[in-house]
Protein: Tungstate transport system substrate-binding protein
Amino acid sequence: MWTRRAVTRLVWPLGALVACGGGERARPLRLAVTTSVHDSGLMGVLVPAFTAARGRPVEVVPVGSKRAIELLATGQADAAITHSPVEEAQALASGRIGGRTPVMRNAYVLVGPVEAAGVVAGAADIRGALRAVAGSGRRFVSRGDDSGTHPRELQLWAAAGVPAESAFILHCNGGMAEALELAAREHAFILSDRATFLARRGDLGLAILFQGGSDLDNIYAVLEPAPDRGGDLDGARAFAEFLRSPTGRGLVGSFGVDTVGEPLFTPVE
Structure:
């Protein structure tokens, strides 16, 4: 059963869909999904397509990657989509999860107020850009929520030689969409996955001010439960296989083209 926190964030009543054939209801696949994938809108495309193709309804709960791994490891989720490679590797090595299948990628970008573009102009890499932000007198909004983005922030601040608990860093403790809204209100910088920013930028008054470089690569993977943890291993593998199939890859690779003019995710090879 989902925890109270998960239930309150459950979205898309897809469990009400009827499985193909015979009119019997299949138990929904319980899928814990990192908030950036949810906030970009991608799951609204993938889940109905998976249900139509495999006859399996899905319940989705958007949480940070660390929480998604915890739900999977404790049998409260059947599968997870996360983007925290270090924690994924640790969970796999310890036997808390049973498998990891990379399915797509995008990149992190440094976002900030349009009028602050000059702060990071000329930075050679993200480390230099972050040092410039630290010396600018402006705020930086941190996710602060144990998401896949949060540990990447910490790694990048460490690489830049800037303490991650500096006074100019404001912790949101929320999802990517919430953090972007806070950055807009505070006229602050923020590290965002490219997909969520482009899908949500609207009237935020924020722009991508720095991008590029391997330090900003962002890989998403489907995680399977360990055999002894109570999750639905077959269902998790079916979902991973669907995302790796020509149909799934086509949906991932085309998502965003009609709405923002470019793909928001790229299927992995």
The first strand starts at residue 29 and ends at 34. DSSP finds 13 helices and ten strands in the chain. The mean pLDDT is 89. The two ends are 34 Å apart (CA to CA).
